[in-house]
Amino acid sequence: MNADGRLKLLSSSQQELPQTLGVATGSGWVNSPGMDPYSISLDWLESTDSCFGGYSIQYLNPAYGHWQGVTYGLTPKNQTSYWATNIRSGTNEWELIDIPCSGPDTYYFANFTQPAISSLSCVVATSTSVACSWSNPARYGGLLQFDSYVLSEEHTPVSGTTAVFPVTTVTDQADMSYLVQGLTPGDTYGFLLNTTDSCTGSWVCTVAGSGETSTSTAVVNPFVLPTGATSSSPSGGSAESSWILGAIAVVVVIAASIFTLVIRSRGRRPPGRGDAPHPSVTNAPPSGAPPGRV
Description:
Helix content: 10-25%
Strand order of the largest sheet: 4-3-6-7
Shape: elongated
């Protein structure tokens, strides 16, 4: 603001205001076509500087407290995409700096929220199997592509040591379930899901400093596989619900039997010794009968 109270107009090279995501502003529009919990793929428009010095990228996470540099002096000018990993989860403010050969730098801002880690759920299917399913909230695009899901099992026998080993590798992004079989009732099992994503852009992937992959892990805490469990129904009903339905059926049959016995006993009850005779019953002989033993 000027001394006279009017707004001061800044040149494009002096602007450091956050830019609206998805709207091109000058040469530095910043977009994120792909994100997982720990990595991001960034795109932007090519610099219009006649003398180009390089691009720099940094981000600010509120929990981190200060700007964190990702790359500095990225060239050539037409290199308008970048992949970075080891990013803190949550909402981060990204800053792209267009550095000319001389003169002030130009800053472009955008906010992006890293997606949550995949959720993993495992339930007992039979006495020797567990059904696991998971989610994948990552968004793929740009330099970020899906690589694989690896489901691992943590097995602790009743008497023995704990071992962790992979049980399956899934390379279809849409396939997010697996039935783990051949388990031992009474043993303790836990499960881990590693979701691995990769970068597809030649040398731009390796300058990120962490290779070409990003992996996040979801965990199901160890639990004891119960003994005597039965197979779940094809419709998805559990062994527990089948047991409850059977118990209800037995109770209904017993109740019906008791009700029938009560009805029959009430209909056949003879008068007892102390019961008074019905008013219609007398010891008088029928009319016209000769006197004698009745």
